[in-house]
């Protein structure tokens, strides 16, 4: 189990799939305790903030499903991401949740952001989507070269209820750092503040490369900040779903040097009571029709990494059936 310090660790729709009052279609068939739901004609998937990776990618995946799965329409909503998505799913408000895998592990164990509310029942794993990479971007004139340099600075820490904010706070705590001011911004807003000089640094759990970072790098002098070895070791000791990753130099035009950081997985979750055949189709098409997902990150969706980093969360029976057919289980 994850220790208490891990509580901090927790990241789309293209036009027609954006938030509407009717996005919870199908929720009238869903019980709040994740009991048997049955076959649905419509599902809602919680994504993330508009400026992040989840929002556009989730919409593109939903559109692909809608084009291929007969009798099912999947719509998406913008949210605070991982924590909010899992909480809404457990309450029966949505049927699919994008989340960082570490946050889902906390959810089923009643840890971290779920320590006060208790463990969420019926949360099941469908599959990994892409590697989630913590990226710290600082302005060149801020004097920030290490995490320790964030002390006394203005820092965008990620939206409330997001994996970004949770992991940001864990990093700051491990480093003994206290910013002068923090902003609970999604990375889209944070990038604008970096460009306009309103913040000194911003954290984001994002794909590599990320369009928001690319945009700010072309309009402001910024660089990536490495997470020191000691901090990474502290984080990994508290959350076994985390690993080290090197962001290569040249990943972003305008940023010459790379950085060493931590990574986890953006994954898809569903209530245990969701129809087995429908979940099987969702998983199958997500991995076998990636060429129809109109988003650059879709190239990182791979059956080869579909079940990596899974800790304590059970497979949905529909997902398990697919992975057994593929020889992964």
UniProtKB/TrEMBL annotation:
* Name of the featured protein: TAXI family TRAP transporter solute-binding subunit
Presence of the UniProt keyword Protease in the record: no
Among Pfam families, the record links this protein to: NMT1_3
Q: Which residues form the signal peptide?
A: 1-25
The UniProt entry, under InterPro entries, shows: TRAP_TAXI
Supply the alphabetized keyword list.
Signal
Q: Which domain of life is it from?
A: Bacteria
List, alphabetically, the PANTHER family matched.
SLL1037 PROTEIN
